[in-house]
Write a structure and sequence with these properties.
Elements lengths: L1 E5 L4 H12 L6 E5 L24 H8 L3 E3 L5 H4 L1
Parallel strand pairs: 1-2, 2-3
Helix pairs in contact: 1-2
């Protein structure tokens, strides 16, 4: 199985990789997209919740689980190769 993920700490990515390992699914590789800045409307009141506290980095998880980790945008030619 090849998993397309993000190349930065991301809770759903972490959960999926750890659960896959726990339940014995073989992950052959992770293709991780780098973080991209997107334009979003500016709000009058800015609030945020830190959802990434305690979240492990995708690359670190892959290293610990011996999963090949590649960083490339998901719409790139490198990803197709």
């Amino acid at each position: 199985m090849i998993i397309f993920t993000y190349d930065f700490p991301h809770k759903k990515t972490m959960d999926f990789l750890l659960y896959s390992h726990h339940y014995g699914y073989n992950v052959d590789a992770v293709i991780a997209a780098p973080k991209v800045s997107i334009e979003s409307p500016k709000h009058k009141y800015k609030t945020s919740v830190n959802m990434n506290r305690g979240v492990l980095d995708t690359k670190d998880i892959c290293e610990k689980l011996s999963i090949p980790h590649y960083v490339t945008p998901h719409d790139s030619e490198d990803c197709l190769d």
